[in-house]
Design a protein that fits this description.
Strands 2-1-3-4 form a four-stranded mixed β-sheet. A hairpin with a 2-residue loop joins β1 and β2. It is globular and about 35 Å long. By secondary structure, it is of the alpha+beta class. It is built from four helices and four strands; from the N terminus they run ββαααββα.
Length: 114
């Protein structure tokens, strides 16, 4: 199971993704020759936007976008070289207080091991 947490103020969300689904998504992303920096920016924006919606406001396309974003964010930070900030394991995104961006941390740094 791959997990990405998102925290904004007092609100927290937990996005989980099955390992097989993760693998399929990442294989497709890699085959498409995706621009990783652009996709990272898009994925972070999608997660922030989705966190503002109620579950009943999300349609199927939103859920697909969210799932792909979670897979990509997890992959991106787990694949970085160590000297570029690799995170091993689950990811926590903490929205800046002014809403201008997010800080990316290893989930166990703020959530603790499950």
């Amino acid at each position: 199971m791959k997990t990405v947490y998102f925290k904004s103020g007092e609100a927290e969300w937990k996005y989980e993704l099955d390992d097989e689904e993760y693998k399929n998504i990442i294989e497709n992303v890699l085959e498409d020759g995706t621009d990783f920096e652009e996709m990272l920016d898009d994925s972070l924006e999608i997660i922030r936007d989705m966190s503002a919606l109620d579950d009943d406001e999300m349609d199927e396309d939103d859920q697909i976008d969210q799932t792909i974003s979670v897979a990509f964010i997890w992959h991106y930070f787990n694949s970085l070289p160590e000297d570029k900030g690799r995170i091993e394991g689950d990811i926590a995104l903490v929205e800046d207080e002014d809403g201008s961006g997010v800080t990316v941390l290893a989930a166990d740094e703020i959530i603790g091991p499950e």
